[in-house]
Task: structure prediction
Amino acid sequence: MRLDVRRLFGTADRYADAGHPLRRRLRIITRRERMAEALAFIQQFCDETGQDKEFALDRLAEVKRALKTDNTYQHTAEELAFGARVAWRNHARCIGRLYWQSLEVVDCRSITEPAAIAARMTAHLHDAYNGGRIRSMISVFKPVEDQCLPATIENSQILQYAAKMQTDGSVTGDRQNLETTRIAASMGWQSESQSEAFDRLPLMVRDADDRRSIYNLPDDAWHEVEISHPQYEAIADLGLRWYAVPVVSNMILSIGGIDYPCAPFNGFYMCTEIASRDFADKKRYDLLPLVASALGLQANNKLDPLWQDTALTELNRAVLHSFEQAGVTMIDHHSASEQFMEFYRREQTCGRHIASDWRWVVPPQCAAVTDVFHLKMRNYHPVPNFYQSRATDGYRLMPYYGDHEQSRWQRNRDRIGRRLRLWQREPW
Result:
């Protein structure tokens, strides 16, 4: 007889309605786990914002009543802003968390219609661009309320370039967006760009009734930067460009047991994100051979085994130069590493452990000469946080109590409890 772990722990019914693409991504937690996350978050909010004991007790009791009755509760505007900032502080894959307290949080929970969401994202892009001095912002839309799903944005980023399959099997544009381009084209989208490599994809919104809508964002929302090199004019002849504001829109914001699946946010670019990943990755634009040719290098590993290193360095130099010339905020990977080390020291001073993922925090260019390369890192998967899917990172999220004074018995109990919950959440 096969043991049904989901039925044993009362979560079988939560997997039953898994046809909706959003529901397949959402975390699956029990009522008890939701209660634990909610109370831990409210207590953290009260502690870090200096609320008195009476306020904390009243708010905790109010949240308990709401969860027992409706299995959900509403965050106040202050709790939402605090939770979004702490989610950024906790996210292990981000190197640029030094200024987490400066994140501007826009409460958009009353905006539910796709057209209104698209209009808000246009305003978000204008506000975040700020004349080139990029502001870190997040627009938080309606959360999941028990079994009711809200509207979501399907693009992985608000601004993206299309990809087109050619008759010879090659791909023009951003290879990772082949499927997104196919879906947009099937809905009637037609490119209006003069550059096949940088065709602007529309914004795709899926409403609460599971219907897709597409919207072309206005030209003045893109704020593209043309790429040139301070020494090699042939780099400009490649016709490269990239948008100034990276608004990530495929991550779910989780605060106190409540998930916000539509919470697009942006910071500003580190040069390696564009040069070493977007332009150089073989699954993206794969431009290193073209860049090497523009630099007069031979893309031959036998003749010059370091040609890729040279091409990458000069491509990063070109991206940094171009953003500086355009007056758009950007940081190099060495400065970003120094900022992360400062963030690390500040968090230690506050008595907090830092959740970090070495594979994501360490820059892809000149990694060994940055301080973060030598830093021992561990991901505690604390909440509040951002996640992409329960199948990859969402199922690991849970409250982390290691920042508090604990006895050995309490530490062992928490460790065993975390392992048990992870075992329960495995996709048996």
